[in-house]
Design a protein that fits this description.
about 260 residues, globular, Rossmann fold, seven-stranded parallel beta sheet, alpha/beta, 9 strands, binds ligand BJW
Length: about 260
């Protein structure tokens, strides 16, 4: 496996006409006070992943799963975007003002990119503050009345088919949204810069997006505290906190060709 030499954010100049795809993970929200999944003190330290992030876990103990997501909904109320989120807004605006394009594919379900002002966002793993029916065959897929509420005692039921309602996130073994996947692949196939930020690179299909981007001929950059599991697939690695690296990386470094 090829060892990646760390680069500096100042080494890169993203031109205003670039076609950029950014993929983000839990690391970008860490400095807003949200726990990541796999780091020490991560979300799954007290809750094994198979108990809270699979349809089987929900079927076995829906009360426990709702408690887990209700706590996260509560914690999210106090969080605001950080300088990493803001930097991606700056990049999007700069590219849109030039001839470039920008697509942000986020694995995060916290909505902080939208809160910061990002516009072209694909929520590839769903949304923590949306609620849907757990019965895939139910016509009443979404019930906005239940969004953002907390359920520590009783579990809400679908008004249409009476099945339990569940958080509208993508669990292991479930298909990602078709519309979201189609938009992501379209953007990846035409990108010339691909930047992954704050993700461990272990969860598929998103972990393979770097290869899609490389097949399109893109320059690929990883911004993370440490080399991710799929770091070998990237051209460049910038080691550091996203809130410090991204503002320097996206700064307009003069006229572009
Ligand atoms: C910082 C930082 C700072 C910290 N600055 N950095 C191919 C091969 C093998 C398996 C599969 C495969 N294709 C599909 C699978 C199965 C499975 C999978 O990937 N399994 C692997 C784990 C082995 N994938 C699926 O099931 C997906 N569905 C699917 O593919 O359907 C078709 C299919 C199904 C079954 C078989 C085959 C095909 C669905 C995946 C859904 C993932 N859902 C979750 C939960 C969402 C709800 C919730 O929030 O609770 O999404 S899992 C969890 O992991 C969450 C995250 O979005 C995702 C990624 O985590 P992320 O963001 O990378 O966080 P961490 O904690 O892992 O990493 C944080 C990083 O940040 C660290 O590296 C830190 O160092 C860094 N960091 N502070 C910069 N300040």
């Amino acid at each position: 496996m090829r060892a990646l030499l760390p680069s500096e954010p100042g080494d890169f100049k993203i031109p205003n006409h670039a076609q950029v795809v950014v993929v983000t993970g839990a690391g970008i929200s860490a400095e807003s006070g949200l726990r990541t999944f796999r780091d020490s003190n991560g979300l799954w330290e007290e809750h094994p992943v198979e108990d809270v992030a699979t349809p089987e876990g929900f079927e076995a103990d829906p009360e426990m799963v709702w408690r887990f997501y209700s706590q996260r909904r509560e914690q999210l109320r106090d969080c605001v975007p950080n300088a990493g989120h803001d930097a991606l807004v700056t990049l999007e605006q700069r590219l849109k003002a030039g001839d470039g394009s920008f697509t942000l594919i986020t694995q995060n379900v916290d909505g902080l990119h939208q809160a910061a002002g990002s516009e072209e966002v694909i929520n590839i793993h769903g949304n923590l503050c949306e609620t849907k029916c757990s019965n895939n065959a139910c016509a009443q897929a979404h019930n906005t009345e239940w969004d953002t509420k907390f359920y520590f005692a009783h579990i809400p039921r679908c008004g249409h088919c009476n099945s339990y309602l569940r958080p509208a996130v993508v669990w292991f073994g479930e298909m990602l949204g078709l519309d979201e996947q189609r938009k992501a692949i379209n953007a990846l196939r035409r990108c010339d810069w691909f930047i992954a930020v704050g993700t461990s690179g272990v969860v598929y299909p998103v972990a393979s997006y770097v290869q899609e981007a490389r097949a399109a001929g893109a320059q690929t950059l990883l911004v993370n505290l440490e080399p991710s599991q799929n770091a070998y697939a990237f051209h460049h690695f910038i080691e550091g906190k996203s809130s410090e690296v991204l503002p320097k990386l996206v700064a307009d470094k003069g006229s572009s060709t």
